[in-house]
Design a protein that fits this description.
four-stranded antiparallel β-sheet, 51% strand, 0% helix, seven-stranded mixed β-sheet, globular, mainly beta
Length: 112
């Protein structure tokens, strides 16, 4: 049985930081591309960052380049999204995708 659990979201002021965690189970984790997506209220879900096996290929959305970092720890079947210099427009539900499976998300709110 596969499991995906995101955590680390919360309320933060503009300019602040958060580190999201996506813990997984039941996958051949080290062999998979993993992605972080987000969906703001009234908008479509969009890709924020993805990371390939062995971290050889990392893609970031233009809107988060220079501010967000994605990483993986295959020994823990976990990926991370370090988010710095957060802006109000980063407010969204953040989801982890593993293959065709999605987690339930973690809410990030950036507000004064």
């Amino acid at each position: 049985q596969v499991q995906i659990v995101e955590c680390g979201g919360g309320l933060v002021q503009p300019g602040g930081s958060l580190n999201l965690t996506c813990a997984t189970a039941g996958f051949r984790f080290s062999a998979l591309y993993i992605g972080w997506f987000r969906q703001a209220l009234g908008k479509e879900r969009e890709l924020v960052a993805s990371i390939s096996p062995e971290s050889t290929n990392i893609d970031l959305a233009d809107s988060v380049k220079g501010r967000f970092t994605i990483s993986r720890d295959d020994s823990k079947n976990t990926i991370y999204l370090q988010m710095n210099s957060l802006k109000p427009e980063d407010t969204a539900e953040y989801y982890c995708r593993v293959g065709e499976h999605w987690g339930l998300g973690t809410l990030v709110t950036v507000s004064p």
